[in-house]
Amino acid sequence: MTRLWAASRLTYAALIAAGVLSIFPIYWMFVVASRSNDAMGQLPPPVTPGGNFGANVSRLLNNTDAYFVAGLINSAIVAITVTVSVVFFSTLAGFAFAKLRFRGRNALLMVIIATMMVPTQLGVIPLYLLMTKLNWNDRLPAVIVPALVTGFGVFMMRQYAGQAVSNELIEAARVDGCNTARIYWNVVLPALRPAAAVLGLLTFMTTWNDFLWPYAVLNDPENPTVQLALRTLSDGYYTDMSQVFTGTAIATLPLLLVFVLFGRQIIGGIMEGAVKA
User: Fold this and answer.
1) Residue 198 DSSP code
2) Residues 45, 265: contact at Cβ < 8 Å?
3) Ramachandran sector of residue 67 (left: φ over 0; alpha: ψ -120 to 50; beta: rest)
4) CB 211 within 8 Å of CB 231
5) Residues with Cβ within 8 Å of residue 86, at least 6 apart in sequence
6) Cis before residue 44, ω within 30 degrees of 0?
7) How far apart (Å, rounded) are the C-alpha atoms in residues 273 and 20?
8) Rounded to whole angstroms, how far apart are CA atoms 274 and 268?
9) Is residue 270 scored above 70 in pLDDT?
10) What stretches of the chain show up as alpha helix (H) in DSSP?
């Protein structure tokens, strides 16, 4: 049995320092969000929350130029739809590439991997022209449809399915009379749940924080995503930083909530991978 090295005091100090450096920017964001604009210019800067968070939230929601509530709703619709779609299609395609035998499987997988090598910025202009042809500009489908499937998700699920799902288990399910769809739903999908949770978290965070593509296709100021609403708050000759930090804090809460909900699955997937290794 391999013995683990005992952590030294220096290791604990380094971990504590790394944790503080990682958490402090998020904590200070909430501190500024609970104070007035004067907090930005104070030296030393404040490190304790103030009592203006409710007033800042009220001013933010009453800001008729930002449409922040509409941005939250739109981002929730886009992020949830894209996440569910990516997880479903990625697990389905990953199972097919890992466990099913069909002509052209390897060539098709190489094509999918090749799509990961193309920078996102190169696809903005062709996608924008396509959205214009479909009359989807300024509409949420223009943001949702191009992101429904990702090459990274398919490749990730293919690699995980190759290890997590044994061929004997699939053969046993076929002997019991299961068709391919039922094998996927009752056998493969439960085995892929830890990796699917990780993929879902990454997809939700990426979609929620996406700015470039929504900025390109959503030109209607009354129909923004949350990132476009935050951009509107920071525009202008005078920037109300307390509103910007308040909006950023509110926009961060769904990400923290998703991480808390999927954290156990993520840790379970990491531990399962470590045990297999």
Assistant:
1) H
2) no
3) left
4) yes
5) 147, 148, 149, 150, 153, 199, 200, 203
6) yes
7) 28
8) 10
9) no
10) 9-33, 53-61, 68-99, 105-115, 124-133, 141-144, 151-164, 167-175, 180-183, 189-191, 193-209, 212-217, 226-234, 241-276
**Residue that the structure tokens 């005992």 belong to:** 6
CA atoms of 117 and 119, how far apart (whole Å): 6
CA 118 vs. chain centroid, Å, equals 20
Whether residue 272 is predicted with pLDDT greater than 70 in this model: the reply is: no
pLDDT score at 274? 43
For tokens 């203006």, name the residue.
52
Phi/psi for 185 (5° steps) reads: -75, -40
CA separation for the pair 117, 84 (Å, rounded) = 24
63 to each of 53, 60, 213, 228, how far by Cα in Å? 15, 5, 24, 14
The vertex-210 CA angle with 206 and 211, nearest 5°, equals: 165
Residue linked to tokens 């503080």: 20
Q: What is the pTM of this model?
A: 0.86
CA gap 21, 27 in Å, rounded: 10
Residue indicated by tokens 């993520």: 266
Per residue in 135-180, pLDDT (tens digit) is 999 999 999 999 999 999 999 999 999 888 888 989 998 988 889 8
Q: Where are the beta strands (DSSP E) in 96-213?
A: none
Query: The tokens 């296709």 sit on which residue?
Result: 217
Side-chain-side CA neighbours of residue 205 (13 Å): 14
Q: Do residues 224 and 214 make contact, with C-beta atoms less than 8 angstroms apart? A: yes
